[in-house]
Amino acid sequence: MRTVMVVFWVFIISLIDIKTLRIPDMILLCFFLSLLFLDRSRDVSFFCGRLASVAVCFGVFYSLYYFTGGMGYGDVKYAAVLGYALGLDKSLWAFTVASLGGIAVYLAGIKFSRWNASVKIPFAPFLGIGSLAALQINFNLLDSL
């Protein structure tokens, strides 16, 4: 059920970001609350782990937002919600896939479409694709370090 919910919200958020270059707070709140409802019977240790994941994901993306200005604050909040949805290990996979995909599209756009450095690209679809890919990965990155 969790995977279906993540797929649904990722699809909605990606479409909105592609169309408007914005991720509405109300949509993120609905995504987060639906996850909390799904997890209502989990134990405290689950929530502590997910809270740590939210903090790490928010911190990393906020740093990128603050120091580079290369993404919007909606992407920061979306990354935090995905951190809760996926957990820390799968979030690292998702963000790696998203970053590589975003870089590839940006470089292709510069080379073939004559984009300049100021072009705005919606990042939510890349985060969504990375999240869907991470849901399929069974390798625990953190245990291998």
From TrEMBL:
GO BP terms: signal peptide processing
Domain of life: Bacteria
Domain Prepilin type IV endopeptidase peptidase: 6-105
Listed GO CC annotations: plasma membrane
Keywords, comma-separated and alphabetical: Membrane, Transmembrane, Transmembrane helix
Alphabetical list of Pfam families matching this protein: Peptidase_A24 (PF01478)
Entry's Gene Ontology molecular function annotations: aspartic-type endopeptidase activity
InterPro entries: Prepilin_IV_endopep_pep, Prepilin_peptidase/N-MTase
Membrane-spanning ranges: 6-37, 44-67, 92-109, 121-139
Family, similarity comment: Belongs to the peptidase A24 family.
PANTHER family: PREPILIN LEADER PEPTIDASE_N-METHYLTRANSFERASE-RELATED, TYPE 4 PREPILIN-LIKE PROTEINS LEADER PEPTIDE-PROCESSING ENZYME
Name this protein carries in UniProt: Prepilin peptidase
